[in-house]
Amino acid sequence: MKVITITGNKPMELNIRNEKDHRIFFIKEALKQRLLSLIDDGLEWVIVSGQMGVELWAAQVVIDLREDYNIQLGIFPPFLEYESRWPDIYQELFLEIKEQADYYQPLYEEVYKAPYQLINKDHWLIDKTEGCLILADEEYPGSTGYMLDKLKKAASESNYSIIFITPEDLEEVVRSYQDSIDGYS
C-alpha cells in the first residue's frame, strides 16, 4: 500500500481527558510500530481528516517519522473551521499539525452545513486510499463505528485493507515498554 488513512477513537471515548495522559504515549507507540512496518512495505502517504484523538496523534507520529523516512502527511478536513468547536488544546494541536502537513485541503470550502459533509469525508478517504489503520475496539467502536461500517463494505467489495490496532495490541505495547524498563533496572 502506498496511501492509507488512519482513524480511531476520540479522546473522550478512550477516557482521555487531557493531552498529558500517559496512555497517549502508548497509543502513539502502537501507531508508530504499525507505520514503520507499512513504510518498510512501501507506504508513501498517510491522509487523515485531522479529527481529534487518534487522527491527530497519528499525524504527530507521521511528522516525527518524516525526519528519518520518506513519508508524507495530508490533512483533509470535511469542512472549513472543522476544529472550531473542539477544546482549545485540540484546536491548537490541529492548527500546529495543519502547518506541518505536506498537503492541506478542506473537502468542502464552507463551514459545517449538514451531516453529508462527514459522510462524504469517510467515502472520500476510502476512495483515495488502499487501506485504513484503525485504532478501535471492534466490539465497542464508538464514533469510529460509522467509518468502520464503510471500511468493511469497501473491503468486501475490493481488495481494501483494514489494519486494526486493538486494545490487546495496546496492552502488548505497554508490556513491551515495561519489560524494556525492567531490563534497565
TrEMBL record:
InterPro entries the record matches: YspA
One Pfam family in the UniProt entry: YpsA
SUPFAM superfamilies linked: MCP/YpsA-like (SSF102405)
Residues spanning the signal sequence: none
Name of the molecule in the record: SLOG family protein
